[in-house]
Design a protein that fits this description.
Layout: H1 2-18, H2 32-40, H3 71-74, H4 77-86, H5 120-131
Helix pairs in contact: 2-5, 4-5
Bound molecules: heme C.
Heme C binds next to helix 3, helix 4 and helix 5.
Length: about 140
Amino acid sequence: MARMATCVFLLFGRLVWASDSLPPLAQVAGSPQQGERIFVEREAGHCVLCHQVQGLDAPFQGNLGPDLTGVGSRLSAAQIRLRVVDASRLNPDTIMPPYYRSAGLEQVATDYRGQTVLSAEQIEHLVAWLATLEQSGG
Ligand code: HEC
């Protein structure tokens, strides 16, 4: 029994590892301008709670997560999308909330059950903006 569980775990781990990226969630191309707004606004993504981006016009930027300055040079749009949708697919212990996963979420208020934190369009806006963040030489 324990052996079987280990096999299942290994297989699952492999699948998780194998998919490092995700194709677009919505038909409409994301807008970088809207993405930047969603990143900052408390009522939307409020990603600045944990992340900072150099040059971003936001009064408070947290550092619980990695600095996302130049993230578009490090990761493809599809890789960024996977991390915003559900970072726990890569790191099961991550503190980053899954923004587009409704199944398996515990302690979700009844009104929000079955819904995702952000819409597919909002995710695409965020990805569009983050993908434009390139590392500048100096
Ligand atoms: C509660 C803190 C927290 C919030 C809120 C948060 N993140 Fe994260 N994020 C993290 C942490 C921590 C990581 C590092 C991944 C890990 O834990 O394995 C991360 C990783 C990432 C990465 C991958 C960065 C890299 O260099 O690999 C991206 C992209 C990202 N976050 C985008 C976002 C966006 C967009 C939002 C808002 C919708 C957001 N995050 C909200 C904590 C957070």
